[in-house]
Design a protein that fits this description.
The complex is a heterodimer of chains A (204) and B (238). With 204 residues, chain A is α/β, with parallel strands linked by helices. Helix content of chain A is 32%, strand content 27%. Chain A has a single domain (2-203), classed as Rossmann fold (3-Layer(aba) Sandwich). In chain B, 80% of the residues lie in helices and 0% in strands. Chain B has helices spanning 17-34, 36-56, 61-83, 85-93, 96-101, 107-134, 141-168, 175-202, 208-237. Chain A binds chain B through residues 48-52, 67-68, 70, 73-74, 76, 78, 80-86, 88-89, 93, 97-98, 100-107, 109-110, 113-114, 117, 145-146, 148, 175, and chain B through 1-5, 7-10, 12, 16, 19, 23, 27, 30-31, 34-35, 93-96, 98-105, 107, 110, 234, 237-238.
Chain lengths: 204, 238
C-alpha cells in the first residue's frame, strides 16, 4: 500500500502542486494525467524516492519514507523517461546488467524468454545502438517482466511504443496487478486496464 | 513467464557492499573495453603532452631530468581530468544513474566500483607508461622507479577526488570547465608530493617521506571520497 499525504512540489519559485493526498492499495493502478508541466514526472520521482517533497510525506506499507529509503528501493521498479540502456551492450546484456543492479538473480535462459515475450527474441544479440526507440522501450518491458518488485513507477511508459507494444504493456501491467502489485503511471494514452483496478488522478 | 519468486532480497547491510562494487567495476570495464578508441585517445593525449616539452626547450641533460617528473605529473593530472566527465555524465544522460541510485546496493559501493574502473582504465596505464616516457627526459633508473611508484599511489587519489567533482558538476552547463576549476586546486597536494618524491630521491634524502604522505592521502581519499561522491550524486538527481 502506497500513500501520499499532503504532498507539495516546488520548482524554483513555482508551486507545482500542493495538498496532494491519495492511497493506492495492492492490486490497483494509479494513472496520473495532466498537461505538460503540471508536475507528473516530479510526483513520480518523489514517489520513487529520487527527490524529497517540499512538504508532506510518502508512506510505503504504512511506514514513512524519506528520499532514497532502503526498504522502498528494495520494493521498487522505476522506469523513467530515459530507458537506462548502454549503446555498447547488446539487448540481452543490457537486460542482464539492469537486473543484476536490482540485485535479482535470474537464470540466463529467462532473459531470452523475456525478450521473446516482447518480440525482441531475434534482436537480443544486437547492440542497443542499432535498435529503434520503440525496441529500446521493449527492453524496459522485458525488465519489468523479470523484476520481482511489488511497486512499479512508470513515467510515460507508452512513449515510442507501437499499438502492439502498448497492448503488451497493458497486459504486463494487468498481470502485475493480478499478482497483487501496485503500479503508478503517468501517461497520455489511456491503458486498457480492467476499470475496477484503476484509479486516476489529474494534476492541474 | 519465468519469474524467480524466491530470489534472495539484497540487504543493504555490509554484505551487499562487495557485490555492489563488483557490479559497477565489471560493467564499467566492459563498456570501456567496447569503446577502446576513447581510451586510446586519452592515453595518446598524455603521451603527446609529455613529448611536447623536450621539443620546446633546449635539450640539455640537467634541465630535462629536473623538469621531467613535474611534466609527467602535470600530464597525468590533465589526462585524469580529461577522462573524468565519462565517470558519471553518460550514466546521468541515459537514465542509468537513476537506476544506480535506486538499486538496493549501497550507492557508496557502486560509486567505489565506478571509481576503481576509472583508475584501472586511466590512472594505471598512465603510471605504467611513465617510466617509458621518462627516458625521454634523461631520468636515471632510480628516478624512474620512484616516479612510477608515486604515480601508482597518486593516480587513484586523482580518480577519487575527481569523482567528487564529476558528481558535483552533473547536469550543469559548462560542467567540464567548472570541473577543472573545482578539481585542479585539490590535485595540488598530490602534485607536490608526487613530483617532489623524485626530487627527494635525486637529492639523496630518499623518497620514503613523500611516498608515505601520498599513501596517507590515498587512505583518506579511499575512506572519504566514495561517501562524498555518492552524496553529490543524490543531490544531482534531486
Amino acid at each position: 500500500m502506497l500513500e501520499a499525504h499532503e504532498l507539495a512540489a516546488q520548482r524554483g519559485r513555482a508551486r507545482l502542486f500542493e495538498g496532494l493526498s491519495f492511497r493506492v492499495d495492492a492490486g490497483t493502478a494509479l494513472v496520473i494525467t495532466g498537461a505538460n508541466g503540471t508536475g507528473k514526472t516530479t510526483l513520480l520521482r518523489m514517489l520513487a524516492g529520487l527527490s524529497a517533497p517540499a512538504h508532506g510525506e510518502i508512506r510505503w506499507l504504512g511506514r514513512s519514507c524519506a528520499a532514497f529509503d532502503a526498504e522502498l528501493r528494495a520494493s521498487l521498479a522505476f522506469a523513467g523517461h530515459a530507458p537506462a540502456l548502454k549503446d555498447e551492450l547488446t539487448a540481452e546484456e543490457n537486460l542482464a546488467v539492469l537486473l543484476a543492479l536490482a540485485g535479482e538473480s535470474v537464470a540466463p535462459a529467462a532473459f531470452e524468454s523475456a525478450l521473446g515475450a516482447v518480440a525482441l527474441g531475434a534482436k537480443r544479440m544486437l547492440p542497443a545502438r542499432v535498435l529503434s526507440q520503440g525496441q529500446r522501450r521493449r527492453i524496459g518491458l522485458a525488465r519489468l517482466l523479470l523484476l520481482n518488485r511489488p511497486l512499479w513507477i512508470l513515467d510515460e511508459p507508452v512513449t515510442a511504443l507501437d499499438s502492439a507494444g502498448i497492448a503488451m504493456l497493458a497486459e504486463i501491467v494487468a498481470g502485475h496487478l493480478d499478482r497483487g502489485g501496485i503500479a503508478v503511471a503517468a501517461t497520455h494514452a489511456p491503458l486498457s486496464l480492467p476499470a475496477v483496478r484503476v484509479r486516476s488522478l489529474e494534476l492541474a | 513467464m519465468t519469474r524467480e519468486a524466491d530470489s534472495p532480497p539484497v540487504s543493504t547491510a555490509a554484505g551487499a557492499v562487495l557485490p555492489g562494487v563488483r557490479w559497477a567495476l565489471v560493467r564499467d570495464l566492459r563498456i570501456a573495453l567496447r569503446s577502446r578508441s576513447e581510451l586510446a585517445v586519452q592515453l595518446l593525449f598524455y603521451v603527446i603532452v609529455v613529448a611536447l616539452f623536450p621539443l620546446s626547450t633546449t635539450p640539455e641533460r640537467n634541465l630535462l631530468s629536473t623538469m621531467g617528473p613535474g611534466v609527467l605529473w602535470v600530464a597525468a593530472l590533465l589526462a585524469s581530468l580529461l577522462s573524468l566527465p565519462r565517470l558519471f555524465a553518460a550514466d546521468y544522460a541515459d537514465g542509468t544513474l537513476e537506476q544506480i541510485a535506486l538499486s538496493p546496493y549501497p550507492l557508496e559501493a557502486l560509486v567505489s566500483g565506478k571509481i576503481l574502473a576509472h583508475w584501472l582504465t586511466t590512472g594505471l596505464p598512465v603510471a605504467l607508461l611513465a617510466p617509458l616516457l621518462g627516458v625521454q627526459y634523461q631520468m636515471d633508473g632510480e628516478s624512474l622507479a620512484v616516479l612510477a611508484a608515486a604515480l601508482l599511489i597518486g593516480t587513484p587519489i586523482l580518480s577519487l577526488l575527481g569523482a567528487i567533482g564529476a558528481a558535483l558538476t552533473l547536469g550543469l552547463r559548462a560542467g567540464g570547465s567548472l570541473l577543472a576549476l573545482l578539481i585542479l586546486p585539490l590535485y595540488v597536494p598530490v602534485l607536490i608530493f608526487g613530483a617532489g618524491s623524485v626530487d627527494a630521491a635525486r637529492s639523496g634524502l630518499g623518497a620514503t617521506a613523500n611516498l608515505s604522505l601520498l599513501t596517507a592521502g590515498l587512505i583518506i581519499a579511499v575512506v572519504g571520497a566514495p561517501f562524498a561522491a555518492a552524496t553529490a550524486v543524490r543531490i544531482a538527481l534531486d
